[in-house]
Amino acid sequence: MENKSPRLVLSPAPHFVTSMDIQKTMGMVVIALLPALAGGVVFFGAHVLLVTLVSVLSAVLAEYLFRKALHREPHVQDLSAVVTGLLLALVLPPSSPLWMAAVGSAFSIIVAKELFGGLGGNFANPALVGRAVLLMSWPAYMTRWSPSLRSAVDATTSATPLGILKMGGTVADVMKSVGASSRAQLYWQMFLGNHGGSIGETSALLLLIGAAFLVATRTIDLRAPVGMIITTFVVSWLFGQDPVLAVLAGGVLLGAFFMATDYVTTPVTPMGKWVFGIGAGLMTVLIRRLGNFPEGVTYGILFMNVISPYLDKLIPRKYGYVKPVKKVTA
Amino acid sequence: MNARTFRGGIHPPENKEWTKDIPIERIPTPASVVIPLTQAIGAQNQPLVKVGDHVLKGQLIGDVQACPAASVHASVTGKVKKIEPVLQSTLREAPAVFIEADGTDETAYMEPMDVFSHAPAEGIQRLRDAGVVGMGGASFPTDVKLAPPPDKPIETIIANGSECEPYLTIDYRTMLESPADVVEGLAIAAYLVGAKRAVVAIEENKADALPVIEHEFAAHGHGVAMEAMLVATKYPEGGEKMLIQVVTGREIPSKGLPFDVGAICQNIGTLKAIKEACVDGKPLIERGFTAAGGACLTPKNLLAPIGTLVSDLVPNVIQLKDDVRKVIFGGPMMGVAVPSMQIPIVKGTSGVLFFTTAETRLYAERHCIRCGRCADACPARLMPMLMNASLDVDDLDHADAIGLMDCFECGACSYNCPARIPLTQHFKVGKDLLRNKRAKEARDGK
Fold this sequence. Notes:
The complex is a heterodimer.
Chain A: H1 22-44, H2 47-69, H3 80-90, H4 98-113, H5 126-137, H6 139-142, H7 161-166, H8 171-177, H9 183-192, H10 204-216, H11 223-238, H12 243-248, H13 252-258, H14 270-290, H15 297-311
Helix pairs in contact in A: 1-2, 1-3, 1-10, 2-3, 2-4, 3-4, 3-5, 4-5, 5-15, 10-13, 11-13, 11-14, 14-15
Chain B: E1 25-26, E2 32-36, E3 46-47, E4 54-55, E5 60-63, E6 72-73, E7 78-87, E8 93-101, H1 120-130, H2 142-145, E9 156-161, H3 170-177, H4 179-193, E10 197-203, H5 209-214, H6 217-220, E11 225-231, H7 240-248, E12 263-267, H8 268-280, E13 286-292, E14 300-305, H9 310-313, E15 326-329, E16 336-338, E17 351-355, H10 373-377, H11 384-392, H12 396-401, H13 412-416, H14 423-443
Parallel strand pairs in B: 1-14, 9-10, 9-12, 10-11, 13-17
Antiparallel strand pairs in B: 2-8, 3-5, 4-7, 5-6, 7-8, 13-14, 15-16, 15-17
């Protein structure tokens, strides 16, 4: 008499779920990257917007077409391809040709991500794989740096601060390149992002704003980035370099906050995250100091990506695994 | 004062506002009840009545000589119509006694008993005779729980007033409406186990129940050192392992039991049942529960005879929307979805929720993105995503090594998963597979 409803649904507990989903998570990362992108436009001009647009579109299109060709469910709406395209653009030089951004982005998605099963299956950061491949394939384009439009120094091409140091330059040369007359001024210019570098890596300020957003929304965990930044600072200092410059120059902050925090390719355990960050920082400085490239963030993080599964063995103490307290007998 | 809590957990919508201010309503005696013969963890009861027998409210109708086991009593006075298997809220079919009420209210209760003038063992026997079980959902026989091995002294007994499951407010209402019964029950329980300290743990969102409970300590505490403690509003704060850690600062060892750390937890409803069994001589034949959910037009707390069919509540006691898509016995986090409403309320039923189609959302499961939100949520500090990855490749041994058997299936990881992976369900299945594997290994002499 009473049960008029057609069929009751049976499903396992729990019977409700958080509203947070993959799309929102990725959306948070996109939002957090927008200040850095805006900085890129201000420092390097409208061309970087085109590079970014092409990179994002290429990533989305590559994912859509690849999954369609393999008769897999489309996942474009989860925004992870947008994140990959955006991240790749931010680590490209401002003067990158559009076709190169498109190729790199498609490579990131298809080879680094979809061939491993798509989001969640990839072992290395797709954007960094894309950048690494572009760096090997078109080194000339990948090392041609345009100066900041806001720079006090008049020049048509410039070297990045790390490039200057790699070529044997001193901190004074770096100061000259950004038109700073004191170390404080140098740090300030570097903090604002007013120097040569990749589209989205130059401004510590804007990257920190994005990172603060991700921390506030509990999207990222700070262990890996903090480990990476502190290690970069300390090891550079031990090598006799300016440690503040080592952190502010190049891609350390972008890498630390947005790539060493990539869910899929970094450890999930708290201790694993620390080791990941410290290892990435160490590799970065070693490559900068001993390798052929002026910058080591890309390969530092990619290297740590590879050993991440091992770092996941560092699981924390579980509930109930405490040594029993000696009972006081009455 | 900051409320104490544990690491991990989640904050799902509480959804308690619909029922928290509505007094518990005793339903009119239903025309018939369907009383499952076995309603507790332990041995299967045998029927002690035959078809055609006239039974009195409170009369023993099912029992077995075994431990653990819990007897079952008639919840209405009337005639036994049949004894047949019925589908129960455990989703298993098991024998139940169908009783047609005759409208009279003759009872067959036990003699009232002043527990404090008897040896604890006699009080324990009384709880066994009254069929008292844990009413928070686990349905473990209370007489067994309150009789730990002699080498495990109990220091602290905890009244679990956390009620962390969303929607449910029956424990809260019971604390507000029957604080003396709850405190009396707590004093009896403390006496039976010899606990020197009794703590009523209440979540902050129910803080107004705290002074009400405290007020009864003097009159009904029987000299037991009692305190009321605020704990943070968080799921699963009321989980036994969590609450004991919060109150005593000690973790129950893996594969151990609460008495290993000298503590015992009791549900609020159970404490009231303990008091009624002893002071009033009344077996556990009725219980309060919350009826709520988006498809329930009249959310409220009800006091119903054990064996009342949910379908018999409609439409006289509660009214439902036409759009009932899911019916849940228990809370939304750990409750069981049932396939019909012809299912009886049992001793372990803390709530019945009715969800609309909009609330009954089914999601496509995605690949794990390793975001770590499951680990953030896990109160046992496990790594659900790693356990799930191991189970995905049938590596039961690795899942075991990283804590599969320490999962107590609270559902927090599933709730938090943005990829909508039914982690908790995977772990339930994985635990079964692992137990089978270990049993097979034992048989094969490995």
